[in-house]
Design a protein that fits this description.
By secondary structure, the protein is mainly alpha-helical. Helix content is 51%, strand content 5%. The relative contact order is 0.18.
């Protein structure tokens, strides 16, 4: 019974992590690359823009990053968030 409870707890933690959104204000390049539609070049550009211009205030601010337009922002909006 104890093993079952432990296994269930582990599954719930992993499920929560799988559905967690990526915070564009704190994510590493690798974390950003995990978002479908963001490859290494765009991930690097997001981090560089964040370092140069400060944190993103809304998801729409991602469109200021070269290679990211409103359509991509809309496409990834379910996978990313802007949290401070």
């Amino acid at each position: 019974m104890k093993k079952l409870a432990l296994a269930l707890g582990l599954v719930l933690c992993l499920a929560a992590a799988a559905f967690a959104k990526v915070n564009v204000n704190t994510a590493t390049v690798a974390e950003l690359e995990s978002v479908k539609g963001i490859g290494p070049v765009k991930a690097e550009a997001i981090v560089k823009d964040r370092e140069t211009n400060g944190k993103f205030k809304s998801l729409k601010d991602l469109a200021r990053v070269k290679g990211i337009g409103p359509k991509l922002v809309e496409k990834i909006s379910g996978e990313v968030e802007v949290a401070r």
